[in-house]
Amino acid sequence: MPDEKFLYNLELSDKFKPTLEEVKQFIEDKVLPVEEEFFGTPNKEDRWALSQRSSEILEGLKSQAKEKGLAIDMTCGRKTKAAIFLDSGHIALVALQPETIVGRLRQQRERLGP
Known about the structure:
By secondary structure, this protein is mainly alpha-helical. It has one domain. The chain is built from 4 helices and 3 strands. The protein has helices at about 5, 15-40, 50-65, 100-110, and strands spanning about 70-75, 80-85, 90-95. Strands 1-3-2 form a 3-stranded mixed beta sheet. Helix 2 (about 15-40) packs antiparallel against helix 3.
């Protein structure tokens, strides 16, 4: 089993740094210009759900990120609930809550022991 320091090292690898710069550029070029519209079109019927326009904006951004090779959709058609930044330089879109992922990692660690 890898040592504990390795498991908790959250520093970006050299392999991922160029992708991070691409992601930052994507945010600057594509996300920030539509941010005001995204938040300015709330769902008036259900405050916890996205409006139709906000959903369209989000789906368009996800599609563009996938086309640029910045994101891998691992949701199997379900709603994206988290983005995981992988050491390979990819962003995995997953249908699991971050809390669920952490819980499963803890369970696996407990099964494997120290």
